[in-house]
Fold this sequence. Notes:
By secondary structure, the protein is α+β, with helices and mostly antiparallel strands. The chain contains eight helices and 15 strands. The protein has a single domain, classed as Double-stranded beta-helix (4-Layer Sandwich), CATH 3.60.130. The protein has helices spanning 32-48, 66-77, 95-106, 174-184, 189-194, 232-237, 247-260, 319-322; strands at residues 27-29, 82-86, 111-113, 123-125, 145-148, 154-161, 165-166, 169-173, 219-222, 225-228, 266-269, 276-280, 284-288, 291-292, 300-307. The strands form four sheets. Strands 1, 2, 3, 4, 6, 12 and 15 form a seven-stranded mixed β-sheet that branches. A four-stranded antiparallel β-sheet has the order 5-13-8-11. A two-stranded antiparallel ribbon has the order 7-14. Helix 1 crosses helix 3 (95-106).
Amino acid sequence: MTADQNPMIEDASAWKGADFTQARSWVHHLTPAMVAEVESAMLAVKAKGTPFREITREDFPLDETAALLAKAYRDLNEGQGFTVVAGFPVARYDYDDNLLAYSGMASYFGKISVQNYEGDFAVDVIDKGVPYDHQSRGYSSNKLLPFHTDGADYAGLLCLETAASGGLSLITSAPEVYNEILRTKPEYMETLRRGFYHHRRGQHDAGEPPLSPEAIPVFDFHNDLLHCCYNRNPIVWAEKEGVTLSEHEIAVLDYFDSITARADMQLSMDLQKGDMQFINNYVILHSRTEYQDDADHRRHLVRLWLDDPDGQRNGMSLLDLYVPKASRFQKAS
Length: 333
């Protein structure tokens, strides 16, 4: 590939942790008036019996809060690729009411999407004592999760409770990782643009292949904008189905991971109760440190995946691999 096919990324999506000099400078804080407005909208959809996954912004009018959410959306779609809306008093409400309020605000960013083969539209990120391997998903474990992208356009996390220790959310800019590799190991870009086969971790119908039907590019361009899709574990687990990674491919993956592991590339977020973190999966790689719960603190996040038809990037994602029936790119039969 020529240099023109691998341009340097110079927009706001390419950043390093040091670019954010003030802690939580990326946070948009709900005011008491906004909280009251969200509560009123939540009670209205609850009275109507609207399922959380079907809430639209028309169902959830937020005259006072809309401008704040519009700023957060610009961060997510056009800016650094992540945002946090903070200050929702989750302790006041039960799980279902919190989910309605969270989904109502999330509807200003996109449409809630199914997340897995089992058909879950909301996933509880808690320690279920399940090992993270080729037959499970990382959100059921308390172990360190390596940097990766999720499915759908955006991923949201509502923090209902923090861990006793650990559990930091780490994010890094995929465009800056791309830039760093282009600066230091440009010969690796062809392999990253070609991509790798992924193990589907049992998220498919009986009789369907256990691997992605084709290699999934780590870096690609859609609408002339960089798009990243990466999760090393399913790439490595493809070897269980007979795919052999070459020494060169392993070296490329090792180098990619070494860039994301650098402290200067990362931004650490200690999510607090009532925080709602949203990330753009095309430009943000995310990780989580190992954590421990105790009797008073059991880490509990609620994850939503969102599709945004108005998003700038809207390329293929891992959702198209694990939940193909929900794929925007599914061909009509």
